Hints:
Distance between the termini: 34 Å
Number of strands: 29
Strand order of the largest sheet: 1-19-21-22-18-14-17
Mean pLDDT: 88
Helix content: 10-25%
Radius of gyration: 32 Å
Amino acid sequence: MSSTIWSVDDHLADILGAIRPLDPIELQLPDAQGCVLVEDVTVAVALPPFDNSSMDGYAVRTADVSGATEEFPAVLTVVGDVAAGAGGLPTVGPGQAARIMTGAPLPPGAEAVVPVEWTDGGSGGGAATTMRPAGEAPEGASGEVRVHRPVEARAHVRARGSDVQAGELALEAGTVLGPPQIGLLAAIGRGTVRVRPRPRVVVLSTGSELVQPGEQLAEGQIYDSNSFALAAAARDAGALSYRVGAVADDAETLRAAIEDQLIRADLLVTTGGVSVGAYDVVKEALSSTGDADEPGSGIDFRRLAMQPGKPQGFGAIGRDHTPLLALPGNPVSSYVSFELFVRPAIKALMGLEDVSRPTARAVLKSDKALSSPAGKRQFLRGSYDREQGAVTPVGGAGSHLIAALAHADCLIMVPEADTSVEPGAEVEVVLLG
């Protein structure tokens, strides 16, 4: 372990300086969700691609319904039906109308759409509330319709290109593809897109005392929560995560487990075994992984000026120099370390520039002052009230208090120079939600 005490900022800068974004690939739209675009996408076809109706009703010429009232409706000859996706459109001439459905193209000659509620629906009676289904009322596409109100030109018509015009920028490089973006790409006809793939993150927890949830605990054993929490955090950050059940405290076993996982990892995360104890297996297994034939490989174990999370490890391993972050084993320490260091590494692999959680300034609401060790940046769990701009501590400072973490939505950051923060003071919080 290095004798130098690293700052939080220097450790993060070292990690980000070594991370290279993943190479772009072409993916089908369903597979591109959560990925980051590497090129601007322009619109090939205007959206919508044709003038179409925004209502169920009748396509008309405005002059034919000018002055129409309930008492003196305009009587028009219905020349046909226009359904969404229809071809072979009827031409609407003087004194004529075409029954039209929402999304259907505006037929030649028509200038506007009259909603069905402003007509008798072709029934010869009073105002209609809905159209009768085409299969039940084929006569609706012929005969006469009475229109009770006038319309202006282009009324209830969605113009071609009113959403986006051909040649416009639809999405710019660097955009994360969520459901609306996938929908837009499909709407403009893009079946594939060039993106950086979601990073594959393998999480391994270490410790002979760890038992998988659902199994029976023996004396001295605890459930493995870290691998579940960190695998979930990696998914939440946008990665494809793979969880490896607890590896026993044996250096050879751990080395073999890591080598087995390298084939499917863009980033490896271990938790536990990085301190100064006799059974700190991660440090034992990985301190000697540097290879003279592979410059840049090997893991450096460090002490950071932070609480929780003082012991950390970072480096590269294997033939492809896969980055590895070794986190402490205490549950809160490992999660705080993930948020500060692993999450930014995942975002950097995705090719994003904004890699860290957002922060905010908040007023501390507490019954007593918060104490913090001199020279260390402390991270305490908190509950943030956005409306009041205030934050309340949740639980104590212990790095094993995972119950408090489950009820926190932010981390309260106490700078290295501060040993006490009084109630009412302004603090910086890292927003986790």
